[in-house]
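Here is the promised in-class demo. Please do not try to memorize the tokens; focus on the logic of going from shape to residues.
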């Protein structure tokens, strides 16, 4: 089969690889019909995530048709399913608490040592990411093996096309959980750093949850326009003192809640971020946390900080004192996708949530390398790339 594989920093290729096979009784084999490039994939593309190996198949946002099942799978051949990017057993302590992204059993024991050393506990497994997270093959491929298929995939009705449900795999529940972690109250003013796909869904979710004002912060005009289209007020950080603007827009108090949807590769020319960029390039530091630091300083005393943006390592000059002295509540983490998919599917069906507005490009799988390059280098116009296995090369929608 064809699959998008990683070969080094800024080097991904569509190769011919072995077809996946059923390994365990709870497995299923999915024929991929749609698969997206995520902002998190760019961390792999940029080489800032450790333990990625040449030949690894990337991709953790995907859906498709069930082709084959193990004897203990609850899926049926022919069903259309969306697959969460988090791999979860459904039976461990954390899964029973609906903390699916903390699953104890999905990351194989022989791959747990590195993340246990880094974080104190081993990470659970993710599709198409680092061997820190199990080294499972991802969904930017024609076919994919889905472990624990009785727990993760959600069956979707035929009247909802792929574009409307694909993002249940990651970015929609991630944006939703980002807003939920901000504990949004009626009449809150909420600021969201980053108008990428997760940030845009966090903005939409915050408004659905009752925020009276959402302020979106970015520097790409098209992405700011998408945020404005959702109902947000916007700040272009390249021409504005963000903290000063937020104070003014919140009546001099500071915003009630902040959402960092940027993560470990923040843009900007603040002195500490420039130093972090240099450190990241030579491997001295893993995270550029300029957005998070600014968010912590901007939120009002007693406010809430939500971190759906991805971080992987350490960061310098973290405003720990501000977090303590301002009595902030801080929540973050990989998304417990399975906790949200059923409710969010209902919100898609009844029109509460629009999931299609941010798709800018649909490409054949064979054109995935171009999709990565443009998604990274032309972020203003390439807001979201969906790969379609089977689409003719040269065809776009």
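The designed amino acids, position by position:
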């Amino acid at each position: 089969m064809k699959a998008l594989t990683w070969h080094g920093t800024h080097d991904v290729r569509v190769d011919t690889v072995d077809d996946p096979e059923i390994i365990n009784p709870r497995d299923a084999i999915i024929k991929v019909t749609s698969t997206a490039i995520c902002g998190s994939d760019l961390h792999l593309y940029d080489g800032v995530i450790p333990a990625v190996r040449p030949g690894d198949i990337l991709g953790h946002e995907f859906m498709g048709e069930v082709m084959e099942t193990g004897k203990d799978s609850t899926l049926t051949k022919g069903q259309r399913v969306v697959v969460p990017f988090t791999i979860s057993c459904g039976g461990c302590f954390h899964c029973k608490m609906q903390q699916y992204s903390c699953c104890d059993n999905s990351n194989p024991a022989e791959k747990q040592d590195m993340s246990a050393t880094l974080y104190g506990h081993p990470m659970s497994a993710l599709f198409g990411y680092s061997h820190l997270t199990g080294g499972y093959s991802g969904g930017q491929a024609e076919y994919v093996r889905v472990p624990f298929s009785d727990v993760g995939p959600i069956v979707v009705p035929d009247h909802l096309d792929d574009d409307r449900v694909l993002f249940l795999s990651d970015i929609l529940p991630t944006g939703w959980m980002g807003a939920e972690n901000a504990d949004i109250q009626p009449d809150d003013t909420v600021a969201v750093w980053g108008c990428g796909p997760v940030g845009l869904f966090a903005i939409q979710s915050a408004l659905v949850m009752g925020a009276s004002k959402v302020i979106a912060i970015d520097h790409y005009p098209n992405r700011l326009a998408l945020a404005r289209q959702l109902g947000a007020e916007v700040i272009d950080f390249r021409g504005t003192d963000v903290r000063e603007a937020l104070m003014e827009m919140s009546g001099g108090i500071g915003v009630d809640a902040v959402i960092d949807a940027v993560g470990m590769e923040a843009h900007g020319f603040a002195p500490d971020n420039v130093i972090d960029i240099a450190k990241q390039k030579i491997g001295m530091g893993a995270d550029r946390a300029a957005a998070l630091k600014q968010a912590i300083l901007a939120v009002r005393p007693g406010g809430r900080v939500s971190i759906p943006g991805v971080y992987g390592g350490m960061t310098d000059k973290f405003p720990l004192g501000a977090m303590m002295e301002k009595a902030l509540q801080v929540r973050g983490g990989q998304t417990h996708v399975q906790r949200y998919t059923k409710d969010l599917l209902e919100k898609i069906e009844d029109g509460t949530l629009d999931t299609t507005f941010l798709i800018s490009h649909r490409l054949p799988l064979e054109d995935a390398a171009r999709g990565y390059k443009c998604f990274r280098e032309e972020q203003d116009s390439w807001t979201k790339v969906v790969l379609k296995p089977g689409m003719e090369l040269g065809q776009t929608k």
